[in-house]
Amino acid sequence: MAHVLAGGAAHAATLADASPQAFGLDEVVVTARRREEVLLDVPLAETVLSGDELQQRSAVQFEDLAAGVPNMVAFRSARSVSALEVTLRGQTALPSSIVYDPAVGLYVDGVYVANGQAAMGTLLDIDSVEIVRGAQGTLFGRNNTGGSISIHTMRPQLAAYSAEAALSGGNQGLFGLRSILNAPLSDTLAVRIAYQGDQHEGWGSSDVTGQDNFMNQHRYQLRGGLLWQPTAHFDAYLTFERFDANQAGGLLHPLPGTIASMIPGDTVPADFYQTDTGKLQRDTAVTDSWQLTLEGQINPALNAKLIAGYRELHADNDYDADAHAVSIADVNLDNTSFQRSVELQLSGKLLAERLDWVGGLYAFHDHGSADSVLAPGLSAPVPTYDVNAVDNRSKAAYLHADYQLTGRWNFGLGVRRTEDTRTLVDNAYVDLSPLGPPQFCTIVDAADPNNPVPIGAETGACPYIRKDISFRYWSWEVSTDYHFTDDVLGYVRSGRAQRSGGWNIPLNTLQDPPFKPEQLTDVEVGVKANEMGGRLTLGAAAFTGDYQDMQRLLARLIGNTPTTEVINAGKARVSGIELEGSMLVTRELMLQASGGYTDAHYVQFTDAFGNDASHNQFYMTPKFEAALSGVYSVPLQSGQLHVRADYTWRDSVEFNVLNDFNRQGPVGLVNARLWLESAGGAWQAALFGTNLGDKRYAYIGGSIVNPGGPPVASWQAAADRRLYGVEVEYRFQHAL
């Protein structure tokens, strides 16, 4: 069997030695510091998962990566189920949009994915996933205050023809198809094509519209890669990927005790998997991505690497942000993004190979839009339109070096300079025709508080308002590590990272200020160990970090119109502990365990209403997390039988920045997989199940805040119920 174990000192659970006396966990190689290193030697809190491990966990999409990773929560957005949002060490995502940046960076084959919209892709043909926790502002750059997720897909292989086909089916109309083809075209050229399509029916329905396919899944992903390796010291790798999702979106279940729930005739369904929405929901997203990586050795002491990427996004979704029949906040969002990035890296060794260094230049440009139509009811029963154009640019230079002071003691230092420019061109208006002007402008001039008349003529088009802002900042990292033995590493590191600032949309006044970048400075102490002859790996880390201008999202009423905006929460501190371990108890039995503790609190936080909000708990940040897994293998004459069980537990979480009654209590989930593998590994048949206890819970929630009274509306997004099925897989390989 082949596993990569989740752990700060993760290792692959393949037999390291074929002899009957020796067996252990394979060595894991990572690239978190932009060069290949053994995981045990890296002074970072890092978890590594292989493609085989993900399959055996029945992980099918990016949110499944969080299971078993300490202090990490990954979830689909309430706005769009194809959008990915991640919380790591208390740092959480803002809604996926071109105007907001994540706190946890997502990288696919080295290319940064700026917009989480349509990032909830399938885990198709994955080589490995590296999850690094803590500030990563030096080597990864901005928007990595919580950490980074690096996904490495399988490259074409020159040495063999291979093919893979898998078919799965189960309850809720579950159906999946996966196929992979690898073909060498010559001694120096190979191609690899991978496809995955999956679908299942939904669980939820609306008692108003009758729509009954909420939470369904219908998507496909296609990737093609071309590898050219003319010499042993140079290769070029070109990939294209398309992701296409056409779904109904999440189910937002309304909560009682709100203004909306008190409207005569309104109801709050008793069934958690029902909603009261009066809007037909739709959630579509399409991305096309191109990547080119050129890598070569200039001389034995100098390497060069160029990574260029392009990602085009078109996403459209209709959803009801209040979850009630009355149209308080019925929303249509139309997102586009055209992202380009290029990075040039130079790396090498100096001083008799005691100094490892890497430096680079980085440029990023993303332009697009986040148009919306909001249909508020009650006092303004007409649509409000926001039409905009967004342009985000960033450039950076960085240098990082690690010096070997002695055979066991190392010292590292890195620095990065970043410049961000954010431009917003916005036009917000209400269409009053035929009763009034076709465009009644809602962006007002607040300079004259006695006459806040909407700008623009009373008839005709409203003007576009342009806002520009630039941010410049330094990121840095310093670390030292010491090998107490060949198999035990201790380290101390400290770093600083930032999340970029920007503009809220829609603008409310000409004088709207930007939200500022947030900054984290953290310190981490950790230890990693590989004991019992390679059969046991352990990792532990303790951390603390101070935030300045932490960004937080608030949904509230502005002029009787529901809106969301990012505010800076002043100062905060996050501390915690992380533990991970993996053990091959016998040749047949492997155990894994992990746990996390987060103590997150605001030191200074004045909310948008001028109130002291420092008593609030962090949004989407459980205090405790734990996971336990076991894999047992039984040798058979015809192959091997494996069974895997995974249990994850998460403490209660708050769903709103300004805490109210909207929260989810502790949740424990059980997943399992039983698979039979043929002697040669060509065939595999599996039974699998997720959420086997059929736990009914909310994975996220929200409220429209009403100062001085109950929320305008509150809702919770229902999580997937029990899924189970069977998968049959065939693999073929022919070495050249």
Written description of the protein model:
This protein is mostly beta strands and 736 residues long. The chain has a single domain, classed as Maltoporin, Chain A, CATH 2.40.170. The protein is built from one helix and 41 strands. The strands form eight sheets. The chain has a 22-stranded antiparallel β-barrel. Strand 29 (551-558) and strand 30 (561-568) form a beta hairpin. The two termini are 24 Å apart. Residues 1-21 have low confidence and may be disordered.
Short characterization:
This protein has 736 residues and is mostly beta strands. It has one domain (29-735): Beta Barrel (Maltoporin, Chain A). 1% of the residues lie in helices and 57% in strands.
Number of strands: 41
Q: Taking all residues together, what is the mean pLDDT? A: 90
Give the structural class.
mainly beta
Largest sheet: 22 strands, antiparallel, barrel
| CATH class identity | Mainly Beta
Number of helices: 1
**What CATH architecture do you see?**
Beta Barrel
Classify the beta-strand content into a percent band: over 45%
Distance between the termini: 24 Å
Q: Give the overall silhouette.
A: globular
Give the % helix. Answer: under 10%
Topology readout:
Layout: E1 29-30, E2 37-38, E3 45-50, H1 51-56, E4 72-76, E5 84-88, E6 104-108, E7 111-112, E8 126-133, E9 147-153, E10 160-170, E11 174-184, E12 189-200, E13 205-206, E14 217-231, E15 234-247, E16 252-254, E17 274-275, E18 282-299, E19 302-320, E20 330-350, E21 355-375, E22 384-404, E23 409-430, E24 440-441, E25 465-485, E26 488-499, E27 518-531, E28 536-548, E29 551-558, E30 561-568, E31 571-584, E32 589-604, E33 624-636, E34 639-650, E35 653-654, E36 663-664, E37 667-678, E38 683-690, E39 698-704, E40 713-718, E41 723-735
Parallel strand pairs: 6-9, 13-17
Antiparallel strand pairs: 1-2, 3-8, 4-5, 6-7, 8-9, 10-11, 10-41, 11-12, 12-14, 14-15, 15-18, 16-40, 18-19, 19-20, 20-21, 21-22, 22-23, 23-24, 23-25, 25-26, 26-27, 27-28, 28-31, 29-30, 31-32, 32-33, 33-34, 34-37, 35-36, 37-38, 38-41, 39-40
